[in-house]
Amino acid sequence: MFKRYTIRNKIIISFISILVLALSICGFYSINLYYNTLKSDTYSNLNLTINNVENVMTSNFASLNNTASTFLTNKYINNWIKNKYDFSSLYYENHSDLIKLENEIASNLMFNDLWSEKYIDTAYICTDDKCIKLVSRLKADNLKMELVHSDVYKQTKDLNLGSYYILNHEKCYFIKKIGNINYTKKLTLIIMLNQDNFSNILKKLPKYYSTYIQNENGKILFSNDESLIGRNIFFKEKSFSENNFLKNSYEKLIDGKPYLIVYRQLKNPNFYITVSIPKDILKKDLTNSIISYLFFVTTFIIIITAIAYSIASKYTSFIPVIVNNLNQIRKGNYDTRIPSYKDMDLNMISTSFNQMTEEFKEMIDKVYKNEILLKETELKLLQSQMNPHFLINTLTTISTKALLSSDTEIYEMVNALSNLLGVSLYNNKNTFIKIKDELEYINQYLFIQHIRFQDKLTYSIYVENDELLECYVPKLSVEPIVENAVIHGLEDTITDGIISISINLDSNENIIFKIEDNGKGFNVKEQLHAKTKKGHNIGINNTNKRLKLIYGENYGIKFISEKDKGTIAFIKIPKITYLDYKEENINDKSNDC
């Protein structure tokens, strides 16, 4: 499809494609950078918010603890601590003392910020399952409120001495438990907190912030979302790992929506402040940025496309002129000419074209247009190929005549050569043969070389176990290495050559062929990767690649060679005794002989 476009359009399309790709990469990088910066800034804002909330709430909780101490420092409670007073008498008979106690408490609260700012609704002291009102700003029935505080007292009756915050019927209470002088009795101060006023501190934050204060068990005591008071969320999620933006921060799905969350643990009391923000707010800002960027990119591409089209039109206007003049030449009009151009390259094309048409015209004028004789002479090269069957049959005939002539040496040489040629020429489907058959080919080859070199060549073959002879090996995978040993062990040397071949099993049940010669040695890297004039290296290289292809990279040929001292070649293959003649299944066979 792209081939059908004109050069002008191809230039424009290519230019715009590169531009769009570059802008896309830059845009993706910029947007990703902007998003991470936005996310980091959001976490910083959350952290700043949580710092402010922490300061305010810590101050309020400290004031609450001081207020509780104010309640517990009057003379009646001091006498109770010294076992000099029984609060049950206030409940049943000493109503005048009760009034004095309430007046004393009211006097102490006149300059108390928590009371004046309505952070405290009620305060009761409870002992022996009876609760006595100290102060209350609620208009509810006294008996009803007494029952409410009695219920809270029962809930906290078994707690140890100290300070506690609890939830009872979605109301938050501050509990202070003290003991008498000999710790035989407990007195419980119960302060009902005005959760609305505490939550109003959190409601001053932006509306899209969700802020929670939880106790050590994870229950929400105060929140800018009243529907969540008493619930347990965002608390010690073990599955969350802290992100790289800020300590004590993570992300979590809430009702299917992702939130960014920052939490902080207070020291006194042991509360957690949690601030979260929907991640969609970040995505909204990011979406607006993407839309602005896309608008800019679209406008920019339109402008650049117009400029590119104008430039491409200017620098490709010569193409229709050239095409038109070529058509004129095709029609036989050799007087056509291309005008000159100011651009050096275009003017060079114009000059060359005009010179070409002038030369065409001169050539045609010198040659007879209507009398051109073409004589074709075909030379056929006849290649004669000798039939492999004919070659084998001829060698068989020669060996038979040698046998009839009682020339045993010639008979054995020709017979060995015939067997070797038979292995190469008749490549049947059996890619793998038994080791004993491979050794037979090697014996045939070494026999011929022994007759060739006479006593200059000595060789030996050792097999560790006769059972190894029944194992399988790729056909002609060992013979090229033996041939290489003969070449480097005897040719171009004046000393006698010794070749020893051994077949053993290693500790991993792999078959190891060891071919050793005392020749002149060679460079191992060149032997495996270079091509010599005789071409022996190609056979070794191909054999090595073939073994690795069949068995894997852990198998193949390894050379140890030292100049003028000889060479040792190791061939490593797995022990295979059963074969279905399918090369691709060779790795699935048993390794047990």
TrEMBL record:
Q: Any idea where this protein resides?
A: Cell membrane
Q: Name one Pfam family in it.
A: His_kinase
What terms describe the molecular function in GO for this protein? Answer: ATP binding; phosphorelay sensor kinase activity
Q: How does it sit in the membrane?
A: Multi-pass membrane protein
Where on the tree of life does the source sit, at the highest rank?
Bacteria
Q: Does this entry carry the keyword Oxidoreductase? A: no
Q: Name one GO cellular component term.
A: plasma membrane
* UniProt entry keywords in alphabetical sequence: ATP-binding, Cell membrane, Kinase, Membrane, Nucleotide-binding, Phosphoprotein, Transferase, Transmembrane, Transmembrane helix, Two-component regulatory system
Q: Which residues form the HAMP domain?
A: 322-365
Q: Which PROSITE patterns match?
A: HAMP
> Is Nucleotide-binding given among the entry's keywords?
yes
Q: Which residues cross the membrane?
A: 12-35, 290-312
Instruction: List the Gene3D superfamilies hit by this protein, alphabetically.
Output: 6.10.340.10, Histidine kinase-like ATPase, C-terminal domain
- Xref: InterPro entries: Bact_2-comp_sensor_kinase, HAMP_dom, HATPase_C_sf, Sig_transdc_His_kin_internal
Q: Please list the coiled coil stretches.
A: none
Q: What is this protein called?
A: HAMP domain-containing protein
Q: Which organism is it from?
A: Clostridium butyricum
